[in-house]
Amino acid sequence: MMGKTVSTRLVPASTNGIVVASCSIADLFSGKKVRASDNSLISGKLHLPEYQRPYRWGEAEVGRLLDDLRNYFEPAKGTLNPGYSFFLGSVILHQQDDALLNIIDGQQRLTTMGLLAWMKKRGSEPDLSYESPISRQKIRQNIAWLREQNFSLDSLDLRRVNIVLVVTHSEDDAYRFFETQNTGGVRLSGPDIIKAHHLRATPRNRQDDFARLWEGMGDLNPVVSAALKARYWQALRFREFPSHRQPQLIRSAVVDELADRTGKDKGDIAYQQLTVTHTEDGRTQQDTQAGSYAMRQPLNAGVNTIHYLHYFESLRQQLRSHNKIAGLEPFHEFYQELICKVEGCGYLKDLYDSCLLVYVSHFGQKKLYEFSLWLFRMVYSRRVTNKKTVKEDSVGALVRESPVYDWILSSYIHEQCIKQLKEFKVEVTPENLGPDEKSVKKRFIEKVDAWFGLSLPNEQLAQLYDEGLKGGIAKKVLDIGLSHE
């Protein structure tokens, strides 16, 4: 919220090496020394570390800031100008060698104010450069959009735009404060927050490379959510996973699991299942079941976690690809034609996708199709056992009762895992399945019936669904087996 200037007397002068100051945007952009509340001087050139995320504000965010500025600097006729400064919020800076002020949080607001300053008068904007193509494109788009707006730059007085600086000489303290406060601008997701944590832990001469690798992965929220579910929902140490309605708790969970709990060792370690075969002549042969990282493995900060996320995100993209991968055509057809098209199953699909990643990282892709069919029967059982909707908390309850992740990871061979899934019991409730019903539950069963070719009688859906599905799965697996002979 924009409002009156906040006095620095309201904030502790120094907390664990952190000092605060209040100044105008004009003073900050000009490079003037700013006196902090502990009487020290804050100085240095504003600087964007290489590993910072790109400038992403679009018309919506810029528009909200512009509306606030317009209301302040261009009040309605008959209304006096406010007697206080326009408050832009707070930013977190790392003071480096008295020469640089690294922007840890607040880049989006500072960049946008810099664009307005540049448009108002060249020379009044901060001396910042942007290497990211995403940043450059957004800057060009926002400048073009700002020029179209009915806002008088003449009325904009940067001396009356106030900002609070939260400054520390310790980069670690700056990011720790950032992770806990996450102030202003666009609320960052968990992956956005841990990005800086891990890029700082990479070798300095390769930080730009890893920053590009991270940005190239795109939206990491789905794969991070999949990983956290697998890491949280363990049979011997089950932890409740926050609801999607609790974004702040989800961010905290991501930071805790994938930043705070990561080790400081520099090693990029991948844990795999190893099979050792002893031959009759006394030799041994070793073989790994899969190709890379284990979903529940311990992680080190920096390269290790970045490569871990890159591996699972690449795997996720392969599995959900519309371009069928050789050898996985039956799986892709099943996934695209049934998994992606059934309605009212979003929470179940999230669990399903997470389990697929765990399976492939543990066993590889060779028998993925058979696994995907039996996994479907187990995970989507909630759609037919629940009377009505599938609520988010019922998915966690399903895994607590039937620890499917542990079934996968405790199996030495594919057949053990399939045996566990086959033994899972499904009891279909008859509610909302009458001959004249058009419920989501009934439409789901009809889609399953059509895809597997079950031909279930309309008046006996509840009684015959599961036996029919088990037979349909067995036939699909047999057909694929015959087709490869």
Keywords:
disordered N terminus, 3 domains, 6-stranded mixed sheet, globular, 485 residues, alpha+beta, two-stranded antiparallel sheet, single chain
Structure overview:
This protein has 19 helices and 10 strands. With 485 residues, the protein is α+β, with helices and mostly antiparallel strands. The chain has 3 domains: 179 residues, no CATH class; 130 residues, no CATH class; 161 residues, no CATH class. The strands form 3 sheets. Strands 1-2-8-6-7-5 form a 6-stranded mixed sheet, sandwiched between helices. Strands 3-4 form a two-stranded antiparallel sheet.
User: What overall geometry do the principal axes of the alpha carbons give?
Assistant: globular
Number of helices: 19
Strand line-up of the largest beta sheet: 1-2-8-6-7-5
- Outline the low-pLDDT stretches: 1-15
What class would the helix/strand composition place it in? alpha+beta
Termini gap: 67 Å
The pLDDT mean sits at 86
Helical residue percent band? 40-55%
- Please report the total strand number as a whole number: 10
Beta-strand content estimate: 5-15%
Q: Kindly give the count of domains.
A: 3
* H/E series: EEHEEEHEEHHEHHHHHEEHHHHHHHHHH
| Cα radius of gyration in angstroms | 28 Å
Largest sheet: 6 strands, mixed
